[in-house]
Structures are given as structure tokens and as C-alpha cells.
User: Fold this.
Amino acid sequence: MNSSSPPPRPLGSGLRALSLATAGAMALALGLVFFYAPLDAEQGFLQKIFYLHVPLAIVALCGFVLAALMAIMHLRSRDPRWDMRSYVAIHMSLIFAVATLITGSIWARGSWGHWWVWSEPTLVSFLIVFLLYATYQPLRFAIEDPERQARYASVFAITAGAFVPMNFIAVRLASAYLHPRVLGSTSNLPPQMAFTFVVSLIGVALLYATLCSCELTAKRTRAQLRAARRMAEARTGAGEAGGAQARRPRSAVPSLPAAGTLAAPAPRGGA
Amino acid sequence: MRRTVGALLRKELLIELRSWQSVPGMSLFAVTTFVVFHFALNRSSVDGDLAAGILWVTLLLAAILGVNRLFVADAEEGGFDGFLLAPVDRGALLLAKALALLTYLVALELVAVPAFALLLLAPSLTSTLPSLTGVLALGDVGVAVIGTLVAALAVRTRARDLLGPLLALPLLVPIVIAGARASSPLLALPAGQPAARWLATLGLYDLLFGLIAYALFDFLLED
Amino acid sequence: MAALAALPALPLHEAGKYVAAAYVVVFALVLIYVAIMAVRLSRIQRELASLLSRERSAASPPPSSAAGESTLP
Assistant:
């Protein structure tokens, strides 16, 4: 029952290299942040949060836009793997967005004494973006047919991806004339700070890639396991083991199609 | 294409005229909301930023009511299937529904804006009415486009009444920002002119999402 | 900018708390994710083990009380 497509890459290949690179980059970034970058004249030590908050924000936003691009690929090719990638990208970007909001809030508390400030356009934009993408999962969950679920989710991902830059422009316009930027911008950075910032950005971006890769690998593995179990049950007559494989419960997680497209590796003897 | 849109639009408006599903409810909701605002804010008259905010929030919430009802009849009575069988461009349905929603919004504003001027607004509208109409029109187009897209997304899901507003509100925030900021000087004492930047934002937003909605609508109608 | 100039830079021991909090929160989030992954991995291993044992008992005719040399880690 092998499909004609080439067998998938062994799961996890490249994941180790990616995680090592991530760990190295983040360790380097941490060292630079605390031992190399100079102290900011106005905000002092508190400014160090900048090296964490802003890369998280940038990576989250790029993640949302990437998810929109993957959704476009899904709609064009109807390959469910693109939908899977889009789903994981949005999921991870949402977590990074929450981290952005938390670190931004901590920074605001340290700077202004308030846990929330409306005068910081990045924070406000992220709040709106978070509220929008938080509806992604409920939307998927409310549609049963997996093909339609993937299609509608892709439409949402594309719409939301286009919304993100417009939202930033609108919010930035709205607050530009109220207060000056409180939490600092990325322009006019002295070279040492700029270098540290770039390394932090690379570290966070690698972290995002690693976590997404991890997530995708886990999902593919489970899909292959399911395929293997289905093949086994088909062979032995499916009545065996009390039908422990119950109907897949309604879920928001995209599912890869059955054994046809994924050649599950045949369990070889004892090796 | 134009004939298809015309035919679909006539059908929508005829149904609305006969059954009065959306517009009376939306208008009544808007007027009631103004009353609620009076008590909630404990103010008898408002102007400037506050007036613009109340007006736009009320219009937005009333529009959500209309959005919720937009595709319900089609979903429940097989209108989608009938349309899909016809050999017409599917974007025509999007255009027709968006134009219908736009019409409902204009009808809503014909009731809500005078009610607002009567109940809560401090400055008189006589001089600024044309500009205000322009701002509202630009905002309405955006609300109609986003509303139709979201309605089509939400109507064939399980929790359509909940998902519709949840999806629509964040997407409509830039319209509220630009619309409220543009109307605020028009509703102030003394009246000013809306900043061009907000009108440009509204126009750009309408155009961008109009194109996106048109490109994506086909994918929602399959099967 | 005048408003910013009036803001005192927080003393180190004060600001240190916030910086530490921010970095710790992100680190904790990553750790939570790793923990969730670990749980998922163990579930996958369990499923795989049960699948393999079923295959083995189906391949060799029952009763197969042969000591299964498990090669699973």
C-alpha cells in the first residue's frame, strides 16, 4: 500500500542541528546582553528587556505573515501539509505574541509604574492581533469536515495576515501625536547595542524555527503511527484489541490524510 | 457579471423589504444603545472625541447584528447550492451581499445619526453633515466588505452567532480608529475638518480588504 | 522628550527584578513547551510499543510467551 511519492525524510533530521544552533545563538545573545551591550542612558538596566521584547515581537509578526503565505500555498496546491505548517506557525506565533505582551507589560511596569500603557503602539497592536488570532482555534474547532476546516482556516489566515500590517499602521497613526515612544525604538542604536540586538533577533528566530519544527515532527509522527495502526488493523481484521482505536474525536488540529500519502515505515523485526 | 450582481442584489433587498429582518432591528438597537450610553456615562450631551466614539461603537455593534443575519437564510434554505449550480461568477455573490449590507448600513445611519443628534449630540450637525456623511460612507464600505467576508466564514460553522462578532471586531478596529478620529473634529465645538490621513487610511483599508475578500470568497463557497 | 528626561532611571536592584522577571517568564514558557513535548513523546512511544507488540503477537502464532527482546529504548 505504498504511495508513489518518495518516502518522507526521516523524522527529526535537521532538528538536532537546529536546536543546537538555537541554544548557541541564545547563549551568545544572553552573554552579549548582560556583559557587552552598554547601559542605556535614560532607562538604565531596565532597557535590557528591549533585547528580548522586540525580537519576540518581530518574530511573532513574521510568523503570522509566514502563516498567511503558507495558507496561500495550501489554497493553491490543496496539499494538507501546507495547512499543517500554517496551523503550527499561527499557534507558535500566538505563543510568542503572548510572550511579547507579557515582557512588554513588565517593561511598562518598570518604566511607568503601570502594567499597561495605551501610549505604546506596539503593545496595543499586539493586543488586537492577539484577540484576532485567538479566534483561529475556535473557528477550526467549529467545523467538522477536515477539508473544509483547512480551507476556511486558510482563508482566515490570509485575511488576518493582511490585517497585521494595516493594524500596525493604523495604531501607530493613532498614537503618534499623543506621546513620544516610551519603550524605545530600534533606530539610532549605538553599534554595540545594534549588534547585540541582531544576535538576539537571530536567537529568537532560530527558537521559533526549532519549536515549529519540533511541533511539525510530533504531528507527523503521530499521523504515521495512526496510519500504521490502521494498516495493522486492516490486516488483522480490525476486531482485535477491542477496537481500542476509537473514532477520532472532533478536534481543531489538522490531520494528515490516511496511509495512502504517508508511507509508514514498516516495523522491521527487532531492529 | 453586472446583471448577476443586480439580480442577486434585487433578491436580497426584496427579501429584506418583505420580511424586515435586519434594518429595523439594527436601527432600534442603535437608538436603544444611545439611551444606554446616556445612563452609563451620566451625560446629557457629548461632543468631540466622546461623541465620535459613541457614534462609531454604536454603529459597529448594530452592524454586527446585520452581519450575523447576512447569510443565514442562504445556509438554512439551500441558497448556496442553488447559486453554485448557476453558471455565474461566484464573486457576484460577494458583491451582491456586500452591497446589500452597505444598503442596510446606510438605512441604519439614516435613523441612527438623527437620533444621535437629537438625544446626545451637543453641537449642531447642519454645517458638518456632508463631511460626516462622507466619513461614514467610507467606513461603511469597509464594514460591509469585512462583514460579508466574516459572515461567509462563520455561517457554516457550529457557533456562528459567536464566531461572527469575535472574528469581525478585531478586523474592524482600524476602521473604528480611522473613522472615530476623522469624525471627532466634525462633532466638536467648534467644528473642524477631518485630517486627510484618516480618510486615506479608510480608503486604503477598504481597497485592500475588498481585493482580498474578492480573491478569497471562491474558496469559501466550494462544496 | 522632556517627559522622558524627567523619568528617573530605576536603580539597579529595582530594575533587576523586572529584567529578571521578563527573561524568566520567557524561559519558563520554553520549558513548559519542552515538558509538553516530552509528554507527547512518551505517549507516542507507548503507542508504538503497543503497536509493535500487537504486530509481533500477530506475526508469530499465539500463545507467544517468548521473551520479547524489546529494542525500544
